[in-house]
Amino acid sequence: MEVAVDRSLCEANEVCIGFAPAAFELDDDEELRIVHPSVPESEVERVSQAIAACPKNALFTVE
Asked: Rounded to whole angstroms, how far apart are CA atoms 37 and 3?
């Protein structure tokens, strides 16, 4: 699974960080940073929950 963010939609409200803190973080400019675009198997469920919970639908999987 690979995850990406649409920066034009993302408001960096940290909902995704709440679900998957090992996968997402805010950088020094308060913009969302994906720690590991290729999601480790151990984080797939958490990242999937974060994608579903994103209030702006800014997160998506890349095929």
From this structure: 5
Q: Using CB atoms within 10 A of its CB, is residue 54 exposed (0-12), middle (13-18) or buried (19+)?
A: buried
Q: What is the mean pLDDT of residues 6-24?
A: 97
* Per-residue model confidence as pLDDT tens digits over 24-61: 999 999 999 999 899 999 999 999 999 999 999 999 99
Other residues' Cβ atoms within 10 Å of the Cβ of residue 43: 19
Nearest of 30, 31, 27, 22 to residue 50 by alpha carbon: 22
Whether residue 58 contacts residue 24, with contact meaning beta carbons closer than 8 Å, is answered with no
> What type of residue is 48?
S
Q: How far apart are CA 8 and CA 55, in angstroms?
A: 13
